[in-house]
Design brief:
Blueprint: H1 6-14, H2 20-34, E1 40-43, H3 45-60, E2 72-76, H4 104-111, E3 115-120, H5 157-164, E4 170-175, H6 181-187, E5 190-193, E6 213-218, H7 221-231, E7 248-252, H8 262-277, E8 281-285, H9 288-300, H10 303-317, H11 326-333, H12 340-361, E9 365-369, H13 378-383, H14 385-404, E10 408-416, E11 422-429, H15 434-449
Parallel strand pairs: 2-3, 2-4, 7-8, 7-9
Antiparallel strand pairs: 1-3, 4-6, 5-6, 5-10, 9-11, 10-11
Helix pairs in contact: 2-3, 5-6, 8-15, 9-12, 10-11
Length: 450
Amino acid sequence: MTSRTAKSLAQALQAGRIDPVDLAVEVFEKISQAGDPAIFIEQLPDRAMAEARASRERLKAGLPASLLDGVPIAWKDLFDLKGRVTTAGSVVLKREAPASADAPVVAAGHRAGMVTTGTLNMTEFAYSGIGLNPHYGTPLNPHAGQGPARSPGGSSSGSGVVVARGIVPVAMGTDTGGSVRIPASFNGVVGYKSSTGHYPMEGVFPLARTLDSLGPLANTVEDCVLFDAVLRGLARPEAHASKVGQLTFLIPDDVMFDDAEPAVVENFNATVAQLEAEGARVRRVAMPQLHQIHELMRRHGFLAGAEALAVHQDRLAGPDAAQMDARVVRRIRQAESMSAVDLVILQEARIRLIAETTSIIGDAILICPTTATVAMQTAPLEADQDVFFAHNGLTLRNTSLGNFLDWCGVSIPNGTDANGMPTGFLMSRPHGQDHDLLCAALGSEEVIRG
């Protein structure tokens, strides 16, 4: 699927070849033409047109607010937008008061002149890697074509689909266990999960505050880099492409490849061979810490689950539970059996494991398939909760390890299977190493795409 990049649109806008108002109108036409009402939870044409008109005046005066002035964007419905209720993909939050202000990260986009077109669908309360939503519908994975509907990935389902369909060139998501990188992988786009704390979290409805992070989905790594610079108020990006021949990649032991589909493994191995052919150094390393994390979770539960239960315990104890996605309710309630001792053990082990894996990775980039499978058909997942939970666990496995270990990551498309469904190639670095990661991703993207 071909889509215009944020960079190419920005260049055309600043050169006067495209008018911001015309571009905003085009976005809403594309939404109608897509024939998928589940992508957006709410379209915001009034806000978009006002922002587009303001952009038009700045660009006419030769005073763009940023490198992306006039470029359309959409936000996962976890971000506060002034004057509207943040639903977090639910119906139970609809009776809450409208936001009194934009979330700081949304406000940063507004100051940069980007045009907010609406809020995007998602897994309810962001607690699934599959992307199903019984309240607003499930966005359709565009790569499924005329075949059976396939998962859009979650929880930032609408964010992945809206970029893959070419409706907007960049969408903002959140990532607690893979919710940016998974929909990027399933929809064949780029997803950048920033380090925790890289962007302000105020005004973003939480899932698990320890693990929550933010990040864009876009058509290219360069678009993610541009967007990151704009959100941080930089005049130009700091990240520049690394030379592939100067990079070192680490492939962890088998836990990230267990139960992976053949096409996923074949595409990963082909990408590794292409990187080596360009002079990159690739080493396989033992990382027993990954197995230890799974054992910790088996014995003591999930850190994300405990924190999600703290956020939602009152809802689960009252009538709201009956109006929530039963799969989400079941998953949050799994944490009810956790004790305070379990939580302390997880927190202390996490500190140790972060230090150990950071030492192993050193200056290298850890690589693995973003997801062990391509997007699966949704009908069996909707019909049987046990099938859903089995697929959800496998879908989240590789990415959630990165969240537990506080890594930043970039997922880049690296091919398709025999049915044309995309696979993703995940590059990760320890916390706070976003600059090095983005430089490596910029330099490697062309090789990875093949």
